[in-house]
Amino acid sequence: MALFLALVLAVFGLSAPSGTGVASAADRNGQPTLTTPVKIDSQLIDKGYRFEVAETGDIRSVALFMVELPDGRIARAYCINAVIGSAEGAHNLSSFGEQGIPGGPHVRWVLKNSYPEIGARELAANAGVTGAFPEEAAITATQFALWHFTNPDVQRPRIVEVSEEIRMNVDTVADYLIDHATAETAPEANLVLAPTQQNGQAGSDIDGFTVTTTAESGRLTLTGAPAGVELIDPARNVAVGTTAEVTSGQRFAVRVPAGTEAGTATLTLEADVPLQAGSVLVYTGGVAQQLGLVSDTAPVRQEVRAAVSWTAEPAPEPEPTIGTLARDKADGDKTLDHTGGTVVDTVSYSGLTPGQTYTITGELIDADTERSTEITARHTFTPDAATGTVDVEFTVPAALAGRTLVVFEKLFTGSRVETGAVPVAVHEDLKDLNQTVTVAEKPVTDVPTPTDEPGAPGDGDDCGGDGHDVSSSGGDCGAGSALSAAGLLTPLIPAVVLAVLAGGASSAVGSVAPVTGSAHVPATVPTRAPVNGGSVTPVAPAPSSTVAPTPAEEAQVPAAEPRRLLANTGASVLLVVLAGLILLLLGASLVQVRRRRS
């Protein structure tokens, strides 16, 4: 049901304060969508008849009020409520405003089909009244019909100080209006700025304000806003400042720059539009009587307002991050046994949304090859807070002994990680020591040391006193001995050769006899040593296989002259020995020179 707002006047006959406004429509909570400052003066009224309030017996008067509009023109208005207030007109209408005006849809029909829209005589004729029916009767009949719809629980007042004919004619016309009234919607707003309240956030455009008016144009003004907040024409995406000329159907937004503190502002739309029957006057000063406005087609400067508010721009949500600390599960250090073990990687996270499910996937990377070991693990969890830690475990086999391993981790949303899913956080750094663990080298088995050969120098032998041979350059005894033997071998070889030659020459001297003309050497007859002191017995020579020369052959062999051989003097042997000694000394000197150079 369309609703009207209420204006409050004191008691009939008393002047109402200025500051009253006009409302053409209202929402359920009684907030007007159209207000215009007007002035009501009790001296400018058309009076009806006096009546007695049935509930109290008070005597009041009906009146058609004159409303002075801003341009000085006069409009007319009836009371909407029956007179049930105090002498000062005090009346609590708060609940009344919350509920709306009972019978409101019929009020407009009554206003459009009664006095003064229709003259007193015509109204009486429409109702079938042929007797006396002056203007006071028309005003009173119209008021009684309005109260029937707006105050259905209030009895119709009884007119006093008039003839019975007038009283009956007033009741007849009032009944006619009540019986023929049809429900009509509230007057269409001549000026609308909708919605009347819009909320947003700093750093955005608060959109959705639409202008509707029967006027050719109007003016939209933004007031109460801090510097930087301005109107935006969304159709052109152009800032128009804080004031703009508008036409019906045009949309506007309020742009609030980022960083602006929370606040509010007011949008005011003004235009010259005609008033319509059924508009309601609203008193802004407090408790007073309501007035239903009779139609007036002349344009009137009217305005509507809307409120806009915004909250401060929220701080940006931190992006999820992760960090890791890998260690040996067995003892908590950074080195695993060569037989393998378990790596525990404690993943610390921040910037996560509590209550949302996440999955961490990890793999072990060989730090030397920078390739995956194909050892992976994952952990799904739902954090209670934005920060925290979870553990991910990797099983390392013995085959990776001696390797340095780095843990790479990725964080995904959800409990399932599809192929191609994009992680929300990654921690992959080959140089991060916190992510790094080492698998110990496999130990090497010791080989037994062989024992020394008999006669070989043992540990601690000095090889001649100082542990070095004459040709040794500081090495061990065995090395020095080998070097000395190799060094002395060179000069000893020629010396030995010469000695052998000399010995051979001496033997030759002792076995060669002078030749006396025979080419054959007489065989030496060996003797056998005596046994037991006996005499030596000559042994017969063995038969010779040599053929004896013939006399002719002996005649052909010349007699050899005697010659001097090496064995005769011994001088040649001495020279040979001296030469060998000299060569020996030269060889020893050469060995010493080599040792010093090395």
TrEMBL record:
<keyword id="KW-0812">Transmembrane</keyword>
<dbReference type="Pfam" id="PF08341">
    <property type="entry name" value="TED"/>
</dbReference>
<feature type="domain" description="Thioester">
    <location>
        <begin position="76"/>
        <end position="182"/>
    </location>
</feature>
<dbReference type="InterPro" id="IPR023849">
    <property type="entry name" value="TQXA_dom"/>
</dbReference>
<keyword id="KW-0472">Membrane</keyword>
<feature type="region of interest" description="Disordered">
    <location>
        <begin position="438"/>
        <end position="476"/>
    </location>
</feature>
<dbReference type="InterPro" id="IPR041100">
    <property type="entry name" value="TQ"/>
</dbReference>
<keyword id="KW-1133">Transmembrane helix</keyword>
<feature type="compositionally biased region" description="Low complexity">
    <location>
        <begin position="535"/>
        <end position="554"/>
    </location>
</feature>
<protein>
    <submittedName>
        <fullName>VaFE repeat-containing surface-anchored protein</fullName>
    </submittedName>
</protein>
<dbReference type="Pfam" id="PF18202">
    <property type="entry name" value="TQ"/>
</dbReference>
<feature type="region of interest" description="Disordered">
    <location>
        <begin position="525"/>
        <end position="554"/>
    </location>
</feature>
<feature type="transmembrane region" description="Helical">
    <location>
        <begin position="571"/>
        <end position="591"/>
    </location>
</feature>
<feature type="region of interest" description="Disordered">
    <location>
        <begin position="312"/>
        <end position="339"/>
    </location>
</feature>
<feature type="domain" description="T-Q ester bond containing">
    <location>
        <begin position="320"/>
        <end position="439"/>
    </location>
</feature>
<feature type="signal peptide">
    <location>
        <begin position="1"/>
        <end position="25"/>
    </location>
</feature>
<feature type="compositionally biased region" description="Basic and acidic residues">
    <location>
        <begin position="326"/>
        <end position="337"/>
    </location>
</feature>
<keyword id="KW-0732">Signal</keyword>
<dbReference type="InterPro" id="IPR013552">
    <property type="entry name" value="Thioester_dom"/>
</dbReference>
